[in-house]
Write a structure and sequence with these properties.
Mean pLDDT: 87
Shape: elongated
Distance between the termini: 32 Å
Radius of gyration: 17 Å
Number of helices: 2
Largest sheet: none
Helix content: over 70%
Structural class: mainly alpha
Length: 65
Amino acid sequence: MNNIAKIASLITLGLVIVPCLLYFAGTIGLDTVKWTALAGTIGWFIATPMWMSRELPVDADQVEI
């Protein structure tokens, strides 16, 4: 599951970066960039916390910050 989340995170990050570069090169329109970057951003915020989350230590519930 961890590897699948990492791959999904990388793909969605590509959905943010690649359309911007294609727009800069004049290949695609601005509306396409906006929609793919929005989809990539939403996907990245869903996929990335799945593999970047960490296990809390056993005594973490006893510590006040």
